[in-house]
Model the fold of this input.
Amino acid sequence: MTTVLVVHGPNLGTLGRREPELYGTTTLAAINAALVELASSWGWQISVFQSNSEGAIIDAIEQRAGDIDGLLLNPGALAHYGLGLRDALAGLTVPVVEVHLTNIHAREDWRRRSVTAEVSRGLISGFGWRSYVLGLRAMHGMLSDTES
Amino acid sequence: MTTVLVVHGPNLGTLGRREPELYGTTTLAAINAALVELASSWGWQISVFQSNSEGAIIDAIEQRAGDIDGLLLNPGALAHYGLGLRDALAGLTVPVVEVHLTNIHAREDWRRRSVTAEVSRGLISGFGWRSYVLGLRAMHGMLSDTES
Amino acid sequence: MTTVLVVHGPNLGTLGRREPELYGTTTLAAINAALVELASSWGWQISVFQSNSEGAIIDAIEQRAGDIDGLLLNPGALAHYGLGLRDALAGLTVPVVEVHLTNIHAREDWRRRSVTAEVSRGLISGFGWRSYVLGLRAMHGMLSDTES
Amino acid sequence: MTTVLVVHGPNLGTLGRREPELYGTTTLAAINAALVELASSWGWQISVFQSNSEGAIIDAIEQRAGDIDGLLLNPGALAHYGLGLRDALAGLTVPVVEVHLTNIHAREDWRRRSVTAEVSRGLISGFGWRSYVLGLRAMHGMLSDTES
Amino acid sequence: MTTVLVVHGPNLGTLGRREPELYGTTTLAAINAALVELASSWGWQISVFQSNSEGAIIDAIEQRAGDIDGLLLNPGALAHYGLGLRDALAGLTVPVVEVHLTNIHAREDWRRRSVTAEVSRGLISGFGWRSYVLGLRAMHGMLSDTES
Amino acid sequence: MTTVLVVHGPNLGTLGRREPELYGTTTLAAINAALVELASSWGWQISVFQSNSEGAIIDAIEQRAGDIDGLLLNPGALAHYGLGLRDALAGLTVPVVEVHLTNIHAREDWRRRSVTAEVSRGLISGFGWRSYVLGLRAMHGMLSDTES
Amino acid sequence: MTTVLVVHGPNLGTLGRREPELYGTTTLAAINAALVELASSWGWQISVFQSNSEGAIIDAIEQRAGDIDGLLLNPGALAHYGLGLRDALAGLTVPVVEVHLTNIHAREDWRRRSVTAEVSRGLISGFGWRSYVLGLRAMHGMLSDTES
Amino acid sequence: MTTVLVVHGPNLGTLGRREPELYGTTTLAAINAALVELASSWGWQISVFQSNSEGAIIDAIEQRAGDIDGLLLNPGALAHYGLGLRDALAGLTVPVVEVHLTNIHAREDWRRRSVTAEVSRGLISGFGWRSYVLGLRAMHGMLSDTES
Amino acid sequence: MTTVLVVHGPNLGTLGRREPELYGTTTLAAINAALVELASSWGWQISVFQSNSEGAIIDAIEQRAGDIDGLLLNPGALAHYGLGLRDALAGLTVPVVEVHLTNIHAREDWRRRSVTAEVSRGLISGFGWRSYVLGLRAMHGMLSDTES
Amino acid sequence: MTTVLVVHGPNLGTLGRREPELYGTTTLAAINAALVELASSWGWQISVFQSNSEGAIIDAIEQRAGDIDGLLLNPGALAHYGLGLRDALAGLTVPVVEVHLTNIHAREDWRRRSVTAEVSRGLISGFGWRSYVLGLRAMHGMLSDTES
Amino acid sequence: MTTVLVVHGPNLGTLGRREPELYGTTTLAAINAALVELASSWGWQISVFQSNSEGAIIDAIEQRAGDIDGLLLNPGALAHYGLGLRDALAGLTVPVVEVHLTNIHAREDWRRRSVTAEVSRGLISGFGWRSYVLGLRAMHGMLSDTES
Amino acid sequence: MTTVLVVHGPNLGTLGRREPELYGTTTLAAINAALVELASSWGWQISVFQSNSEGAIIDAIEQRAGDIDGLLLNPGALAHYGLGLRDALAGLTVPVVEVHLTNIHAREDWRRRSVTAEVSRGLISGFGWRSYVLGLRAMHGMLSDTES
Done:
């Protein structure tokens, strides 16, 4: 059974409450539910992990690396300085899709560079909670060789 | 009827032949066909424009700005220096979705900065021809307030 | 008869409609009319050209270079990257006056540098449609050796 | 009665003698006279201040801020490092027009950035003593809502 | 009852022993005691948290965000690269006061930029353990609208 | 009798009127009064100096250097370019405390670097008029070896 | 029959008249004639294209890519910012030789970087109209495996 | 008994499996065993710690700082941004030897700067698992004042 | 009679007392006396001016420009940011010799660039009070065409 | 008799053996022979010098400067840092043609800048051993005013 | 018989006398003796070369390249600008080990970048004369596939 | 007997002939003679060395370091990149005076930084051959504790 690990980085646990004018009012639970539902429609399963700690995220990726077919990752701010996470991604053999709620090219200068996107297959940024759905579709397209 | 203008920038007319190891073997015609088909399934229509000239692209956007509900744009290399195009996008009141075939964060340093993405709603980059399909889905999600 | 070529660069054709809070509500036609009227009061004539394409602007300057006494130029965003246009201006023997509707020193960092102003006689920036009128007066002062 | 404060920054007291091939042979007195004459033709009055000291210029602006309708400023080299003057301008509620005799975009690199222009309404640069006249006309256009 | 969360970042647990010529000989316990005493004098209470892990600090802030009236933060070196912590602070609705034992402007170049201070109310830096006391007074001044 | 010289740099004389949304409505006189009162409570005296001129500030520091026990300085914009003032501070043997009304890390990029803070004992920034009070308390703590 | 496409970029149509002290007095027609004559001596043919528009140059290269054995290109100022042209060259399978009339390393700083030379076989710069002749000889050497 | 703490940073737990063409096929267990054996030959003992979390590494160093004679550290990617770890090392009074499996000067630009090496005694980089052995020998040389 | 204007910039009035380990114990009066004595030996006279204010220094140079044969200038920190002073020097027709007590290339990075030396005849830096004597000798050599 | 000095810089003595995939298999002797033969066909003579030492190259140029009509130079890596060689070239009155075997714009970033090309007549780069032949032809064209 | 060329760059001939607080009191002769002894214990031989001239070092490497199994190099300051030496190393087929007496990451900023380390197998830096011994052990480990 | 070593760097052997409009028409022999004469007047002797090779200059300094009382150095272009020479100077215990014929702050940007001046006692730059005489006088002042 195709399994996608969904990893949510720092500060994503409070989604829906934190700066809603920027990040929206949808909660992480709602996003996870939407992803599970979409995945189920293809016969896929989703494994979810959220942490505010880079080290814990690397641990999680390390532990599950052998059991997953793809990684859907919202690194949060780690995208811009998490070189340890970057090295962890570089060591994966399954595809990584990076997503961001906001458009990282339309905010502070330092958000434009994503060190994790450098070693990902692709990036989806700026569509709010839909970035995740589109990211899962991107994964589906690549792994199943369908449109999306 | 909801209309999306699809604009393909410089060098995209030769897609499928140009550096296929980088950009894939799918032709622009095939991509356009896939977009039309997907749009039709929602009762939407697609208007397509390709040009190697920044000026002609600005002309096209100017002329159709009043008749479209969204712009799906692959600016090609113009993403990195086309400040005139950037200003044209900034003047639009409909949403802009920027797509790239390759992952602009995983190539030359200068490709990391997209001046057009600065004024777009979001960016999808790195999924080959699927970037377009995902971009159209992103537009659908936003305009119809559905998942994608 | 003294002739001034007035060139409007990319995105200026939609003036009055595009981001009016930034660029004002005066149309290009109205600006041109004001310039013609002021020029007529001195017995001068105005030749107007607008294009969204750098190449077409260089063509126009090349073709008319022998018939004009001065160039009044709003390069739009080309001011910041149009090195081809810059070289065309450097090749002119008549004076060039560069104008901008907005104050290029009070916006994004990249708008502060004008590569075309480097080879112009002077720059007038930030007075909306009046920047053109002041630019024509600057030309009048220089060519007729009057105050302005 | 509409009053414009005209401020001339460092080294402008010796105008006409200092590097005439660069700054021209017109004296400051002659410029002031021309401004007074033009202002009078509109029923306006001009108040003039020159100093080589940034502190004294800030003093002068502070003291007269309540009595003027606009500030016509040639900051000289202070344009490029006078952050104290910049903050003084930012605190004004009347419009500021910055003028330069020479074209600051066509000289040394450090002259391209004007920290005072960042907080001015607009900039006129490169027309010798005529820059002042054009600056006053710009002020007239803005305050009287006429052409210039 | 007004509650201030006091967060001590990486390496602050060993205060008093680590490089005393730089950071002083006062221990963290002593600082906390001083803060508790001062807070008590106003009828306030202090909640203390120390961790060497950015993730754990974000966790702590997330968990207590609803129960506190202000955050007194010594981010340690995280001030200079902890973008995840920065985003956590940006999401807070209570005021943040950043303190440093040493003067961050008088040490290595990279210590001059504090990404967390960007989203704090203010910064107090260079007064050793007194920086904390002054920070608590700053909080008192703001929350109680008293002098400090 | 312990004496603290309080120096207010450029544009601080108009405090309360200049950009009150940024700098607050408290006047300099009110701040001075508050400082005098606090100092008196410790049996200290305050000597106040304000100038818009860097040279005059250096003069004042030079003249009083032998009679003071500490310098409380709000350099205003001079913090960012006043290298002459910086050298004057470096030559002092009494402690210098630098204060700013606004948070210099949360505004323009160039405000982040304070060349005067490099040679000060510490920095307090962002608490409006309370920055001064906290600065005086910091001085008190250091000179009297009390808490603050 | 071996065919070389010779492309002249922006501002090269006015060669001989534009800034002759910099670019010489030889016209483009004369250069083309010299190239045709030299090519004929080897039994080769030359196809010539000049445009001031980057888009038109990409169009021309695209259209003739299948019929040529080499591209001799003077990109003019596009060398320094024409990333679209750069991508077009990168997609060619025949060798590209870049030539410049002036020595791009001995002029403005920004002329030192050629983004088109990055994807060319080699560069010849600084020999006036002879740069073209040398460029054609370089092509001859490579394609015929002769000396030059 | 001389004790050396060996710390392995992020991603080193999967050594032997992760990107073996870059990092080799030797496992961390094998490296540890080699170090223990070499240390034993001198009558020394080794204490090993691995974590993917910067905070946990700082914790470990803090806790064992009093019981060790030297620290042999492979910071992994933390070398390039772990300023918290850097400060922890700066606080140690025993020597630190930094080792890297790959040559950090022969990879990406950002790997060239090691903020932890700034406060270490020395650096050994590029010899695969042998970097550790050489690092232990370096420690032996320094602590026992022998050759290595 | 040959007259040299000797200008001492900010903070030089306290020479001998300020940071003597850096600037020496010789007072400004002693330096002036030595210069007067040396000048007298050639039948020259010295005119001395010291100010902490850039504006006052420009005033002094302006007023005396017509009466002097050379300017011996220690700009102090103004060397590094005094662009107004720089423009004043550029306007002089007599030679300028810049001197510094300390070696500006052996201190902070920002002291390496002297904007005033850019428009001076030469620079003498690092010899304490002897820098002035050597500067006067340099002036003597140039003006009298002798050795020094 | 027209004489061209051919100078080969560091590492060119081992041509043909060193990194042949980059620099080709042609030896320096073969290149020299080809140059002699071509020169002879015009009645010219060639003088050859190779050294790995910048100083020796400057010596050679100094000694022969009076006897040569042109310098054909492959500075090797000295092109990128040999400022002493650059000054030697600047002092020559005969034309200098710089050649490189590889395309310096298509390799490492630091190879893009040639400090020696700044003071050369022109640059030929990227054609392997043919760069020398083309360089000699360029010299022939310039000195004999023929095509090449 | 395995032969290692040991090259000591500029200023290493005076080791033991030059800045002993930085570089130690061990002489180069003593280091060479230690290396010979260690090499002998493996049945290896050492060939030593010292020069202050980059050219002579390249000569030596060129001449001995065919007879050696490895190069142990202390490039001294050439590490930071010797691009000619860098190219020479790049052309070697035997492994290069770079050593430095001091820790190049803990000194001036420009010492952090080693252009020679970019093309070496690895770097050992900061252990005084022991860096050489460790470097030879690194070579031994690599060539003999032993531990070190 | 006090001995000063005078070292002339690259390209100084041709002084008087090379670019005389920049470097003057005085020959090196004449300069040396003037220095010898001045030195003799104090009972000092001069030892002269000129080389175009950095290595040879370091050799010369090394060999004579024990026999000299001061080094008068014109490093030529080595001032800007000769880090090996810089390290040699840093190792000297006698004072170094650096001189330049031209004003290094008034030429190309890269000439402004002197890496050798960083470790010299002082710098004299811009007075042609008189820079040497002044440099010797500076040495005399320092060594004999006289005025100059």
Notes: The mean pLDDT of chain E is 97.
